[in-house]
Amino acid sequence: MRAIVYTQYGPPEVLRLEEVPKPVPKENEVLVKVHFTTVNRTDCGFRRPDYFIVRLINGMFSPKVKILGSEFSGTIESTGNKVSRFKEGDEVFGLITRKFGAHADYMIVSESGSIAHKPNNFSFEEAAAVCDGLMLANGFLKDLDYSKPQKILINGASGSIGTAAVQLAKYFGATVTAVCNTRSQELVRSLGADQVIDYTKTDFTLAGNDFDFIFDAVGKSSFFKCRKLLKPKGVYVSTEFGFLSQNIFLTLFTPIFRRKGVKFPIVTDSPEDIMFFKKLIESGKYRAVIDRRYPLADIREATKYVETKEKTGNVVIEVR
Ligand SMILES: NC(=O)c1ccc[n+]([C@@H]2O[C@H](COP(=O)([O-])OP(=O)(O)OC[C@H]3O[C@@H](n4cnc5c(N)ncnc54)[C@H](OP(=O)(O)O)[C@@H]3O)[C@@H](O)[C@H]2O)c1
To answer: Could you name the CATH architecture of 2-130+288-318?
Structure first.
């Protein structure tokens, strides 16, 4: 089968299209024929890698996992003999954040992993482009107390995590102020944002002082810049560690002062999340935001585009 393989860390050029053996599922695993996948920021983070922790997870000097790709949609090709949830031909989608493997014609997924039947109102292309952004947005937003009104500001609302966060926060019943560039205003409004701020024209940190929660979905701001926007007991979260990993330290120390705090949740995928995403999509309250599509053979180009950090929503890869 074809796969995009990397055997050393580095720039997009380390990615090579190769023929590799088709994997064989163990008794509790399924073999998925991949139709669509994505290139996301997690793939890029594991390929370069920017953070030392990636080397601790995936090999100090060279990557242990050699085929990236965490989001997928496709059909079940075959199953291990103890698999009961899926059968040959089932249409599926999901996320595989530790083992990866979706940048290939076929991939292995555990039956108990983050995999579910594809939402019936989504194409394969759409189904591949939702799980990573939704997982991260959900991990940051799900524990707010929505029995009280929540006023949320989302910075970076046009990215993969940002577009998911706007939709999810609206689904949970929050009032959303979204920050994005000029060209994404219409899109972000159409996703449900109540107010949209164009950061190329206005400094969003002047947007008032009554937010319960600030979600910096691109990690471009900081607690120190945003704290004046927060109500007493308001919380700032970011997808990045911040300058000198300040978000980790602030997560530990700001609760002591009990006024305005920082949280840095560690988010991982779970099968329960994927089932929730499927229900959310099937309820008609979630839309996949796709920026560009590339064939598998052009994954280097796709990766270079993702690394401009200017994509809108998601970049999908057609594999089938
Ligand atoms: N914590 C985790 O586990 C985890 C996992 C994956 C990713 N991440 C991080 O999460 C962040 C977001 O990931 P993503 O995949 O959603 O990113 P993305 O899709 O690449 O986000 C790009 C978007 O951010 C917007 N943007 C860029 N600069 C901005 C600014 N100064 N203010 C507001 N918006 C700005 C861009 O719009 P324009 O450039 O057009 O303005 C673009 O639409 C990244 O920093 C990534 O490293 C964290």
So the answer is: Alpha-Beta Complex (3.90)
